[in-house]
Amino acid sequence: MIDESRCAFKNYTDLITSGMKATDPIRLGLALSSATFLYEILNDRATACVLAKQAFDDALAELDSLDEDFYKDATLLMQLLRDNLTLWTSDADDVDEEEMILLCRHVCADNKADLHTIEEFETDYDACSAIFRHTRDTFLYRLLSDALREQDVKTLFDEIFY
């Protein structure tokens, strides 16, 4: 059922995007539905965000040439796309932080001092202390130094939000 739904969304999206303006409410509604399906049902958050952002940006670029008949519907759907993007990207930040802390706990499982520092980091972290935390000789400093030295892009990417 899910694969059939994914295929149907793709077919409709291909059909509509080839023949409708980016500001058409039907096209925007399909983009909103498709992105929500990807995010909520398939758990494909990255693709959902890309699809929603592309639909929003395409419509925004054509907003000046929008027919008055469609203006209210199009802007409402654009607002829903933007609201979802805001919600989804803030959810991603929370997930990223949790994943980073779990990774650090795993890496430092045998070191009580580092585990204490992780707990301190988890409860007391704020942006003003970022440089202090990144340069202090702790698990995070060693983790980032090793990733840079080994050119471990995945670890660098996982930690980049800090």
TrEMBL record:
Pfam families for this protein: 14-3-3
SMART domains: 14_3_3 (SM00101)
Domain of life: Eukaryota
Domain 14-3-3 as annotated: residue spans: 1-102
Family membership noted in the UniProt record: Belongs to the 14-3-3 family.
Protein name (Swiss-Prot/TrEMBL): 14-3-3 domain-containing protein
